[in-house]
Design brief:
The protein is of the alpha/beta class and 442 residues long. Helices cover 40% and strands 10% of the residues. The chain contains 16 helices and 10 strands. Strands 3-2-1-6-8-9 form a 6-stranded parallel beta sheet. Strands 4-5 form a two-stranded antiparallel sheet. Strands 7-10 form a two-stranded antiparallel ribbon. α6 (124-127) links the parallel β2 and β3 (135-137). The longest helix is centred in the last third of the chain and has 23 residues, at 368-390. The chain is globular and about 60 Å long.
Amino acid sequence: MGVEKSSPSTLEDRSLDAVASLIKNGRARRIVVLTGAGISTSAGIPDFRSPETGLYANLERLNLPHPEAVFDIAFFRENPEPFYVLAKELYPGNFHPTVSHAFISLLAKKNLLHKLFTQNIDCLERAAGVPSDKIIEAHGSFATQRCIECMDSFPDDLMKKHVEDGRVPKCLRCKGLVKPDIVFFGQGLPMEFSLNSFRLTEADLVLIIGTSLSVYPFAALPELCLPRTPRVLFNLEKVGNLGSRADDVLELGGCDNGIRKLAQKIGWLDELNDLWKATVGEEEVKKQLKRQGMLGEEFEEEEAGVIEAITAGLEGIELKGEGESPSSGDGKLGETAEVCEEHDKEALKGVEPEGLVTQAERKGGPSEALQHHLEAHLHQKAATLAVKSADGTDEAETQDAITQQGRTEDKASEGKNPDKKAPKNESQDENQDETSNGKEKL
């Protein structure tokens, strides 16, 4: 009998009703949430990777080395204008949180949100009221910005003015290029991602909302939770290996509809709707509800308005160079797969998977060896827990022990490596770009 058909060990059954009971009965007190682009589509933010309607698909026809060059740090140094055309359309304030964002905020208000890991750069979690100390922005965000040369921060008001005017901001100190603290190709993930990945081992419920789980190491996070921890997927389709565990629940369909179902079963629907309305206003609520009720073709037409504004702005830009990015063509952006793989393995030794995000859709995709190495590393704590649980060790005690182990390992790693510096922001990692191109992906 397959795992999918085996009886759950934590949930009463594999349903939203059982998940709701877990929350209502107080058995889910440390909820970890993982989010991707799907949580923001009903806000009107276009999907980047849809084959025909996504942003990257539309950028294919423009004079760019490759669509993702807009987020390539080497390309940005020579041609910052294309990114700022996109930034003008996607900048915070142009969009508003969805009911799914409001649900995460509600979890935080009820002291049930242990940690939120998001791949999104839109800052809608912050706008929804989720406390910043609960958010891990794995790929950075528009929330802050700094010079890519001297790393000086740049004022928020000036940044907003430059973006609105379509101008490239320059550092007030050294006149270097200013970039939002978004992770580009050629940059490492924020240190906070590595230092907080152990939070999955502490979770007693994991909610995965609107992500294809195609970008590593984020895609490996669901594997970190305990074998008996329920994992609930809210997505249009099944992704990763979700559904393979006895306590997995798949709620396939629109994210917002699935979240509303869960809220209703818990008894929070009215409270959720009131919070969402108070956050975005009645007109925005009506707008999003209307958008969600549209036929797919009409919804894509509305999204196309944002994409067309971006592509129209890019068409008139004259690029420097000969149309070839130094990091294009090999799917790893600047390094051969072999060099990248060795670099990535070395990074993993320090429990700091910086620069490991690899997109499955990129040309060549992630190497099997690297993906296996990464997943094995992330599985380590969960596997240890599973063995101890089988030996009869109390799960709560084991979980606490592993949590402490993770913290001890971090301290030990710092002690063994005298050259290791304190956690850096992602712009500080840019000093390493010239010697180790091609690590990162949005």
